Amino acid sequence: MLNPAHLDLFRAVLRHGGMTKAAAALGVGQPHVSRAIAQLEADLGFALFVRGHGSASPTQEGEAFAREVERTYAGLEHLHHAARQIRELGIGPLRIACQPSLATHLLPRAIRRLKADHPEVRVAVHVPGPDTIWSWAASGQCDIGLVRPRSGYTGVACEPFLFVQAVCALPRDHALTDKPVITVHDLAGETLVAGAPGAFQHALEEMVAQAGIEPRFAFMAQYTAARCGLVAEGLGIAVVDPVPARALTGLPIVLRPFQPSLPIETLLIRPAGRPPGNLVARLVDCLIAERNALTSDQPRRNRL
Question: Taking the CB of the first residue and of the last residue of the chain, which one, N or C, has fewer CB atoms within 10 A?
Answer without folding.
Answer: N
